[in-house]
Specification:
Elements (H helix, E strand, L loop, with lengths): L4 E5 L11 E9 L5 E2 L9 E5 L10 H10 L4 E4 L6 H13 L6 E4 L10 E5 L6 H12 L3 E4 L4 E5 L5 E5 L4 E6 L2 E5 L2 H13 L2 E7 H4 L6
Parallel strand pairs: 1-2, 1-13, 2-4, 4-5, 5-6, 6-7, 7-8, 8-13
Antiparallel strand pairs: 2-3, 9-12, 10-11, 11-12
Length: 217
């Protein structure tokens, strides 16, 4: 059985024929510590909590309880700011109220503070994909998820015109007119997920807007 794949989107962009499981964007906090929630909800969606706004004095207990109740299908903390006491207080407060067995994902930079939590590892452009996921397994065992970012890299390169697949990188390439394009397709991402799963990955997260435009092969 393949690991679950969550596609993140705003509630207004939700469609019933979504190819993956829904993860809803737009949750977080306001400066006064209260909860920030979208106007509408995607039923049965995992929620994504961001740090676009951080409460000046930390999250309120009411806000933590409200967001925990909304996270019955799981929660991913999509924090982009550097590690901070406020960010740690948010994670600690939500984790304390989370249901046992619930998927609760923290950013990789917070792993040292929350070593038992499931960690989000961001996909990177690399020459050897299996080495990347093997390193994640060595560090986090079977308690990590993959933030899947379809790769697209274009660079000048003197080479013969052609196209194909780079097996180690699990990327397609197309070379012509002195330029080579390296890119993911639905097929290369499927292979990457299989390798990630074999090395302890529990789930995959991606943005719907990035996945709906992918070539198949």
């Amino acid at each position: 059985m393949s690991i679950p794949c969550y596609l993140a989107l705003e509630w207004k962009d939700f469609v019933n024929n979504l190819s993956g499981l829904p993860a809803q964007l737009g949750f977080g906090f306001r400066e006064d510590g209260s909860a920030r929630v979208p106007d509408g909800r995607i039923e049965n969606a995992l929620i994504v909590i961001d740090d676009r706004i951080l409460p000046e004095r930390g999250p309120s207990e009411k806000a933590l309880a409200e967001l925990t109740a909304l996270a019955k299908n799981g929660c991913m903390l999509d924090f982009e700011r550097p590690v901070s006491p406020i960010g740690a207080a948010i994670i600690e407060g939500l984790q304390a109220k989370a249901t046992r067995g619930q998927l609760f994902v923290v950013p990789e930079q917070y792993h040292a503070l929350f070593p038992q939590a499931t960690v989000c590892v961001t996909a990177q452009l690399c020459n050897h994909w299996e080495s990347l996921v093997r390193r994640a397994e060595k560090r986090y065992g079977n308690n990590w998820v993959l933030e899947e970012i379809p790769q697209l890299c274009v660079m000048p390169l003197t080479c013969e015109t052609g196209h194909g697949v780079l097996p180690s990188a699990v990327l397609r390439y197309q070379a012509e007119n002195g330029v080579v394009r390296y890119y993911d397709t639905a097929r290369t991402l499927a292979i990457k997920r299989q390798l990630a799963e074999a090395h302890g990955c529990r789930a995959v997260f991606g943005l719907m807007c990035e996945h709906e435009v992918l070539e198949e092969q």
